[in-house]
Structures are given as structure tokens and as C-alpha cells.
């Protein structure tokens, strides 16, 4: 475990090595005391490694960049280890400080796949489900504003303007309640702009 933690700092450009070290921890001791931490890092470094490998493959096939084949896109099969690891934290470690972040990261992972997919809709739905799980918790999670923004943006680009209006409104209320300068700088201007766009698009839809 200590070697894996050290590898975080040393092997920054080699996520596969760090991933293998974390996997070895659970292969050696499936009930490791810090299993939730190991699972989180397995999920993270598997995603990093998958993106790195995809990019390396794409460099060899730049002639296909206009429409990448599925073999040069991220997929749930390739990222099954990350998905399963996040789900194990969520389902089996109810008291883990990583549980709510795992909900957010799982949604973010599905959103990352959606950006790479030829058909984004199924991954949008999976992302929304994960973000919803986080937003329904009663805690004041650091990641809730991020999840709320993703939800609002997904609904907006999917053409669900009425839902997006509500989501952006909820985000603005959340930002006002926290009064956090960093969060405001990240989300407030964009949320107000997108809120206005949604209202305009919704009004046009209603008139058609």
C-alpha cells in the first residue's frame, strides 16, 4: 500500500504502474483495512490509464479523426474496473469519506464516456443517475455543486429546457447558500448565462 501511495508521486506519467500496485494490495489482502481508499485509486488510475492508451492509439490513426471507430473511443467495457470499484465503495462502504465522492466520480466517468461516444444519450442517463444519487443525500458534500452543474448542462444539451431551468435554478440557490468565492467563480456566471439561454429556448419551444 505504501509503495502504491508513493507511486502517486513518482510515476505521474505511468498510471499503469500505480494501478498495478493498488490492484496488488487487494489481490494480496481482499479485506485490507483501507480497501475503500484502494478501490478509489484503482478506479481513478484505471480511467487515467485508459485515456492515455486511447490517445496513444489515436496518434497512430489520425486519418480516422473525422469519425473515430469504437476501438478508438472510451467504453464501459474498458472502464469496467473503474465503474465496479466506484460502485463497490458506494454500496459496501456507507461510512467511507470517499462514498459521496465516488458517486460524483462515477457520474463524471459516464459523462467523460459520453463526450467520446458516437451516441451520448445512454451515458448521459447513467451520469444523471449517479449525480442524482449524490444530490439526494442529506450531507453538505463538496461535490454537490459540481454534480448539479453537470445535471443542468446535460439536460440543456439534451433539449430538456424545462428541467435544465430547474437544475440551474437549484444550482444558483446552492451557490448563494454557500457563498463560496471559488464555487461562484467556477459556476455562477455560466449558470446565469445558461439559465437565460434555457428560458429563451423554452419560450421559443412553447410558441411553436
How are the elements arranged and paired?
Elements: H1 2-10, H2 15-28, H3 35-59, H4 80-92, H5 99-116, H6 121-135, H7 144-157, H8 161-178, H9 181-207
In brief:
The chain is mostly helical. The chain contains 9 helices and no strands. The chain starts with a helix and ends with a helix.
Textual characterization of the structure:
The chain is mainly alpha-helical and 208 residues long. The chain is 74% helix and 0% strand. It has 9 helices and no strands. The longest helix has 27 residues, at 181-207. It is globular. The model has no long low-confidence stretch (mean pLDDT 90).
Question: Any descriptors?
Answer:
0% strand, mainly alpha
SSE-based structural type: mainly alpha
Q: Rg, please? A: 19 Å
Helix content, binned percent? over 70%
- The rough form would be described as globular
Q: Count the beta strands.
A: 0
Amino acid at each position: 500500500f505504501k509503495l502504491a501511495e508513493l507511486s502517486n508521486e513518482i510515476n505521474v506519467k505511468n498510471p499503469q504502474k500505480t494501478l498495478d500496485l493498488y490492484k496488488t494490495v487487494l489481490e494480496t489482502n481482499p479485506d485490507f483495512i483501507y480497501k475503500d481508499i484502494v478501490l478509489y485509486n484503482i478506479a481513478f488510475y484505471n480511467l487515467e490509464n485508459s485515456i492515455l492508451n486511447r490517445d496513444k492509439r489515436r496518434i497512430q490513426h489520425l486519418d480516422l479523426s473525422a469519425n473515430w471507430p469504437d476501438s478508438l473511443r472510451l467504453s464501459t467495457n474498458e472502464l469496467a474496473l473503474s465503474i465496479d470499484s466506484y460502485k463497490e465503495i458506494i454500496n459496501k462502504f456507507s461510512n467511507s469519506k470517499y462514498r459521496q465522492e465516488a458517486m460524483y466520480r462515477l457520474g463524471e466517468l459516464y459523462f467523460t464516456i459520453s463526450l467520446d461516444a458516437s451516441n451520448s444519450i445512454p451515458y448521459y442517463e447513467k451520469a444523471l443517475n449517479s449525480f442524482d444519487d449524490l444530490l439526494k443525500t442529506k450531507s453538505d458534500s463538496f461535490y454537490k455543486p459540481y454534480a448539479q452543474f453537470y445535471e443542468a448542462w446535460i439536460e440543456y444539451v439534451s433539449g430538456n429546457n424545462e428541467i435544465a431551468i430547474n437544475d440551474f435554478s437549484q444550482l444558483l440557490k446552492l451557490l448563494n447558500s454557500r457563498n463560496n468565492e471559488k464555487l461562484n467563480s467556477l459556476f455562477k456566471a455560466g449558470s446565469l448565462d445558461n439559465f437565460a439561454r434555457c428560458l429563451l429556448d423554452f419560450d421559443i419551444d412553447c410558441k411553436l
